[in-house]
Amino acid sequence: MELIDIGVNLAHDSFDADRDKVMQRATAAGVVQMVVTGSSEESTRNAIELSRAHPGVLFATAGVHPHHAADLTNNTLPALQALARDAQVVAVGECGLDYFRDFSPRDLQRRAFAWQLELATATGKPVFLHQRDAHEDFIAILREHGIKRGVAHCFTAGEKERDEYLALGLHIGITGWINDERRGLHLREVVKGIPPDRLLLESDAPYLMPRDIKPAPKTRRNEPAFLPYVARAIAAARGETAEAVAAASTATTRVFFGLPVR
Ligand SMILES: [Zn+2]
Fold this sequence. Notes:
This protein is of the alpha/beta class. It is 39% helix and 16% strand. Helix 7 links the parallel strand 7 (171-174) and strand 8 (199-201).
């Protein structure tokens, strides 16, 4: 099984002590390439630096997460614009709206989101999207900016949101949320309606450890080596083999981000 992890926070400090080992375990598990999420100016710099050290294997996104939207101002925007043009950067984001936590004021979230959609259009790169409890504003802003090339990362919503995103042209990223028998059961229905050329897989590590790993890991830190569990959960829900899910999502990922075959 050959997989690509489209969302791993590999620059996160929880990986500082053993990042190389985490990458080796990922490779051994069949995760051949990874897109490292940038969620602030600093984490974007780290993601780019990391991906430069592993050409052809790691790639980066450049963006400011809605939690940090207040940090994106007229003064800091030019730095992000420059980072987004880096050759290692394959998408703009993580960006979007998060009205669940509201760590940044909503008007600043909307402004930061709109700026990053403009940046995606200007660079010709797809967007890596985050949305929580903000679907109506989120989809309105995407429509306003004519965004078609994007991935709704860590999708946890229902069939209505899925269909609206698909109609817009978006891809959908599925994490280990689907492995969670407490809160992910609805996703096992939702995932059946995502065409194979729109379905992408992600660990969102160090977050969202799949809950069905046997034996259960001693730590709560998720890592990309556990991505096959996500592939198997999706495959079980869709009535396909994990190999078929992996092959389709890997091909789809390479087209979407323009990644080389490895
Ligand atoms: Zn997110």
